[in-house]
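User: Good morning. I'm curious how manganese (II) ion would be positioned relative to this chain. Could you predict the structure with it bound?
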Amino acid sequence: MSKEGFLSAVREGIARVRQAGSEVTVVHHNDADGLTSAAALQVALSRAGFAVRRVCIERVHPPVVARIHEQFPSTILYVDLGAQAAPVISEVNRGRRFTIILDHHHPQESTDPEVLNIATEFFGLSGDMDIAAATAAYFFTLELDQRNRDLAYLSVLGAVGDCHERGGRLVKENRQALIDAVEQGHVEIVEEADGREGYILTRFGDPLPMPPFAVSVTTLGGAGYYTDGPDLGVRLCLEGPFSEAQQKLEELRRVEQAAYDKVLSRLEREGFRETEHIQWFLVGEDFAPMGVKTIGEFCWDIRNEDFVDPEKYVVGFQVMDREVPGLGAFDWSLVKVSMRLPSPLEEKILVHHTMPGLSYLVPEAAKQTDGSIDACHDYCAATLIPIGREEDLIEAMEELVKDKLAATP
Ligand SMILES: [Mn+2]
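Assistant: Good morning! Here's the predicted structure, ligand included:
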């Protein structure tokens, strides 16, 4: 249970990748951590002579996994996602091709010997605190070739994107990558007055504060998901700011603002649909062509607004597109559900434990409504369910809340 254990699993993975052929498909998440991880792996694997393809996905959904394993006769490398879906990935792969999962989310064991799940948590490296996926990817690139040390700055960007600062600074494995980047003059650390650290990206000449740069990368991957944003995001990480990315960002910010304003004014006018403990709303396709990450960000933004009941769970539904860029069309009819908490309710859940958290409510309610189970936290959760089951999901959650409250004295 250590970094050494993690690195020896990485070395086993690399040896098996080399044996398996000369092509690798990197499947990655669309936020800053996922995009920086993919950028580092793309560069390092290309340097090592592999032909590399990237597939950026928003959710690990079984039909998506099935399509990936059918469509690409290559080694498959999942990064910043997949750890919890290891059983699904194993079931789909059935020994067909060598697959690595390199992730920092809570893992499940693989059930296919051809699927190697190198989740940091298996080795005692905390994916919530100490190691971003981008840092795990960086360690992987170093084991491929020590010359990949020039990619260290990508870890810092991914870790900042995932809000990994603890007490205002990056720690443990993330800090090792940070120090590598600082030693090469690619990142500068600034001591802030309040004891926190600020990180400045100097890799591309002009100093760029890291947090807004990471937000830009996430905007390209999330709001730009269906319009080639992830490609621009990876290029932005590798090349620094360029005009096409800047233009795209401006366009996406306009699209996002217009869609937010539309949904906001409707909510203020018409209010939420409500049960005793839940307030919920549908946005349908009003956030298209932005990715389904948008509904989660929107719920987070409004959770403490005046028109929101501070004692009720906030639940939003966004219709999921049938197209997955790079994989083609699917015949599903799905809605993404995002849940967030107003601060007073959050305090009851996290501090006083007088209300049930989302990690209790959501997996069970999703199971009852044919939803896919995904990583849930007590304060923030998401799932995919079939269109038409929205009210069923709300009712299931409401029942679970009532049962829980009835059972607690
Ligand atoms: Mn991550």
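The first strand starts at residue 23 and ends at 28. Residues 33, 80, 104, 132-133, 162 surround manganese (II) ion (CB under 6 Å).
Let me know if you'd like a different ligand tried.
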